[in-house]
Fold:
Amino acid sequence: MSQVLSIFGELTFNRAVMREKLSNKAYEKLIATIQSGSPLDQSIAEDVAHAMKEWAISKGATHFTHWFQPQRGGTAEKHDAFITYSDNGDLLERFSGQQLIQSEPDASSFPSGGMRSTFEARGYTAWDPTSPAFLIETGKTRTLVIPSVFLSWTGDVLDLKTPFLRSMRSLNDVCIRLQRALGNRFAKKVIVNCGPEQEYFVVSRKFYESRLDLKTCGRTIFGAPPAKGQQMEDHYFGAINSKMIRFMEDLDRELYRRGIPAKTRHNEVSPNQFEIAPLYEEANLAIDHNLQTMSVMKMVAERHDLVILLHEKPFAGVNGSGKHVNWSIGDNTGANYLEPSASPLKNINFLLTLGAVLLGVDKFGGLLRACVADAGNDHRLGANEAPPAIMSVYLGEYLTRLINEIENMGKPTEQAMASINMGVRNLPRISKDYADRNRTSPIAFTGNKFEFRAVGSSQNPSEAVTLLNQLCTYGYYIIEKRLATFKGQDIRESALLVLKDVFKETRRIRFEGNGYSSDWHQEGVKLGLPNARNTPEALPAYEEDDAIELMEKTHVLTKREVKAKIDIKFEYYIKTKEIEYKTAVNMARTQILPALTRQISLSASAAASLQTVGITSKLVDDVKAFEKLYVKIKECSDTLEKMLKKAENKSQMHAKAQFLADEGETALEKLRSAVDSAEEIVAHDLWPMAKYQDLLNTL
Ligand code: ADP
Ligand code: MG
Structure:
């Protein structure tokens, strides 16, 4: 067997292990559970838990943990040993069905947006059987990990997996109904596939250690531009250097062992920026795998004396990092509804699905912006960076022409329908040449899927996928309703008439031009498209009546849960900003100003020495310049600190966040500009931290 196949999934409780460790009956029931996506049957929970434990222990594990996705991002785990007392007091290792299905981590320190006071601060986690259990390895320690949902005892959502699973259910229901209406008898279950492209930076540990900002905030707060940034455009797809290729190989191997199908690896636009993308998988698994990938990357990097930066904008002046989320929808037969086909009816289905997504994006562009809004991503979206904050859709010239044809179509004659079908059939051939490669669009149709590029590199892709599901659901609801008015008529004709309107109505969000241009920004405003510059401006989109209605109608979140979500997001934003500003003040006072003092002292005493031998040197001018910067930095850090104090007194969360975004950012920019000027003139050996030159060009 090849090296890859022989290790693939060896750390997962996969089908081969299940088959080996479970009775036939339990195995078949478990597989059926996985396929249907229903909760684990109590009657086999005991067997499955036992088999998992035996397998984990045979691989050297002593503990297990439920692993879940808190709303604040990342993943969380709480380890428990298998040991317990038997009835007669002996120690034994056990893992019960009850423990598998349910566990009770203390939820009090997880953000719940005020839904729960501390005395009732308990939540429970339960295995999501559609995601396989696996072993994590930390050094020599192995732990059995159980991918789980996390709910409060009252049933309120505390995580990001639960809303995702709920979104799948509503999408499934409406989509299957629609498939029946279109005469599709084979579709039983909707499958959403997802392939997240993960961008990241890598820096040498030695340099990283010298930067308080990187260690505390994940991004540099200061740093003068290097002589060589990304202007040579020589990094993108360039040859991967040997240190990096060793890291990537090691990473791929670790991912394969975890059953994660890592597929592409390459250099990105900025120096020391890279991308890894897996083969696409069912969204639930793809999300879990992306979260694992992010933590495995960090672990593997350590072995190579490297540090992974997942922050959306670790360095000013060079590219930021995103996570392009590729999304498509199909069913259990393997059909992809976004894939053009030879069959006219399937192509109608394709156009309807396209229409559904357009309806969703048109109506909920603000929500799409909000679901990827956080302090880190603000440096990409809405700044002059990829992609813009206005949520438009790029379809490519060919598909746009086809849609225009439908819009302008009269009565759908056989001939018109045949021509449209031919148009869709030609799409793959054409799109290879034309449709792709508008990199400035936040949402692009790329051949047989949508690529949502606004997701931040550090974010859990779950929120984006959940919302794409909901937008498609919303669009399908509308289409279903309109189709119903054509009862008894030819389905293809009716569908085309529905589509004609849908394409007309959603014209404003289809944009084929340059998304970075200021013209588009002005045009977007005219068209009434939301264009939030930052998180505090973006988040209120969740509170709008339509948004709440969407959440409730798709059974993803209740109004209460939406409110909690907004609170958590605001709180997280405020904390992140405060930490950044405090770190900036701290670095300025304890590192930058002392460096300048040393420089002043050296230069001043040199000038004085020269004076004693009768030379009046230009050094005096330098000393004056240093001193001027010293004063500037001192003043700017005082201003930033005052701003922080003012912010503290603001009790209303939104106002506080907005203040930190506006006043805070302005104050920080002033400080940064002074510090960066100092970096450019202070002696290299006196500068107290690694510079961009080192961070970006050395590994
Ligand atoms: P790009 O050219 O956009 O950089 P990549 O190959 O880096 O493309 O990534 C594309 C991602 O999209 C991969 O993860 C791939 O598996 C995924 N993908 C391909 N087809 C589909 C599909 N039908 N549905 C969802 N994801 C898909
Ligand atoms: Mg890619």
Q: What stands out?
A: The radius of gyration is 28 Å. The first strand starts at residue 61 and ends at 68. Residues 559-612 form the longest helix (54 residues). The mean pLDDT is 92.
